[in-house]
Amino acid sequence: MTLVLAVSFPHAGAGEDQGKVVRIGYQKSGAFLLVKNEGSLEKKLGPLGYRVEWKEFPSGPPLLEALNAGSLDIGHSGDAPLVFAQSAGIAFQYIGATSAAPESAGIVVPKGSAIQGVAALRGKRVAFAKGSSSHFLLARALEEAGLNFSDIKPVYLLPSEARAALQSRSVDAWAIWDPFYAAAEIDGEARILRSGQGLSAHRELYFARRDFLVSHPDIVAPLIAALRETGERALKDPAATAKFLAAKLGISEAVMLKAELRKPRYEAEPMNAEAIGDQQLVADTFLRLGLVPKAVRAEDAVFQVKQ
What pTM did the predictor assign? Predict the structure, then answer.
């Protein structure tokens, strides 16, 4: 998960009428993939005269770059990329969020490690993706244990690199999210040191280009409804959901099922005070760590439904 946003190009598309086409960016690990597979959004937006175009992205940051360039209308991401996007001035608005899934992320160590608590990470090499949701999780875990980043040796690695580093013992711990988190437990002979419970909400957030929402506010309610209804079906049959996603992601069904069984974050709803507060905590933490250049107010980027 690379978290450097390219924001130097002009914001194209502002004020342009995109007609009745909704261009949605999705990632293979998100609920939008399930919605796309079911065709549920097309069924809801078709009667309103909209046509849906789907575009796949490897992660949140390039998706946000496309949104900023005006080639995308709607997308989804984890918490951290959106804080960077708002700080960088990308004109988006939050339109919804899933319920919290703190158990879907955590910090792991090799099973044979002598490290038994986060406090024991003092002086240790800890791998994580810089500026990611796991960066935030680790910061919170260290704070809880009375440590800060100067007390550890950060090692900035993408998930595939970090897993190999943990297995070779070139790092002592790894902060990561599902399904990589589940894979580390099942396949990587890792042990959970600290889950995200009480530290990180680990939500999936949905957003749209601000000028698109000005012209097309009617898409928000059916979009959230499609996500919620598809999510409810996914939660009722986690084994089938895991089988479908495992094939798309190229991982084992056992790993995907473990991730699905602790993932209530399909339950999409409009942004509420709790979700806004969780985003603000991420923003404040990253500002304190010097990862973003200025303070942001998460609530300033929330789409308000006009009564």
Answer: 0.86
